[in-house]
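forwarding from the other thread:

> can someone predict this with flavin-adenine dinucleotide?

sure thing
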Amino acid sequence: MLSLYDVIIVGGGIMGCSTALELAQRGLSVALFEKRTIGEGPTGRSSAIIRQHYSNELTARMALHSLRVFQDFEEQVGDECGFTQAGFVVLVEEKDRAGLEANVELQRRLGIRTELLSTEALGQVLPGMEAGDLVAAAYEPDSGYADPYLTVTAYARAARRAGATIYQDTEVGRVHLEKGRVTGIDTKEGRFGTPIVLNCTGAWAARVAATAGVGLPIHSCRVQVAFFRRPPGHEAAHPVVGDFRNAIYFRPETGNITLVGLIDPAEENAIVNPDGYDERMDTDFVLDAGERLVRRYPAMEESVSTGGYASLYAITPDWHPIVDEVPAGSGFFACSGFSGHGFKLGPAVGVMLADMVTGAEAPLFDPHLFRLARYGEGQPVRGQYEYSIVG
Ligand SMILES: Cc1cc2nc3c(=O)[nH]c(=O)nc-3n(C[C@H](O)[C@H](O)[C@H](O)COP(=O)(O)OP(=O)(O)OC[C@H]3O[C@@H](n4cnc5c(N)ncnc54)[C@H](O)[C@@H]3O)c2cc1C
């Protein structure tokens, strides 16, 4: 046995790193193992949009908590996260109008600054964008996006300062359970002992769980983003947009660039080996994303394609995460499956998981919604929209 820790975290994305900080700050001895380098996985390639538009009170509260951390990141985490308050607009058709209105009402009740926009007001928030096909829109002035790599590496540095040990280039090959309790993990360096292991490995989570004989319904799915340089006369940054009609999201990026990704439930069909998939973007994807963008933002007809890439979503049957001790009482916690919307929840997830591990008397967030058993009980998380993929 090489060392003993109170808690071992597997995975150096935003969930693992924010939880490492939270637990180390509470005085536990923590080790985090990342098989590549911190942020090299999907977190570092996230579009990192930070919005609060959710259908469930729990996720909306977690998004609001996290937004406040992103806004005050230097003070709270001690480093930069590149948060840009660009504002967020969600655009829907008639079939989603009621869902949008219900979500806005829920958010306002929770203290989130958001409002429904008239067509005229929409023209002011999104000048130059097509709005004739829409029936409803909502606007969150405080939302925006961050730099995902800066964010996750800042969390890792802060966790180290708080006393956590971080092992990079160190894959966890197996999680050991004896008599139903976690005893340690194996790495190429040898065995490390612990009574608690947190599986924060995203798209790899089902594999890591399987080494302990635990099944998780989490698939590794390939998704893409594309970049387009805005043409002369349209250099000004626009807000972040979630466009349900064209099934895309887009946001500004440094250098007059607009980053585009899909809001498409079919992405769950692109199941790939997370250690062996094509990380380049497809030409077909660029053409498709570009056409959808032009439908909303006609000036982008003159834009220039400037690349893109593919990465991974860790997708569950309802596109919501599993944050649960499985099996109960084992000391083995799953915290994965955030699909396409986990980055913005990262700060709150660290608190949620640390409260679970330490048995906090008054946990800030109730993890019940994210229990694994919900699938067997026929109680998946449901959203207000036809697709629950946006939450
Ligand atoms: C293209 C894209 C765009 C996105 N856009 C947004 C967005 O706009 N807003 C938003 O909120 N969310 C977004 N998301 C989702 C969000 O980025 C993810 O939900 C979040 O980053 C997941 O973080 P994680 O820590 O769970 O997992 P990951 O970032 O996947 O980290 C898991 C880590 O575990 C490591 N690992 C795996 N197996 C082992 C092992 N055996 N031993 C040691 N280490 C291991 C991996 O190398 C990896 O670094 C997007 C995701 C992608 C891919």
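The CA atoms of residues 175 and 329 lie 15 Å apart. thats all i got for now
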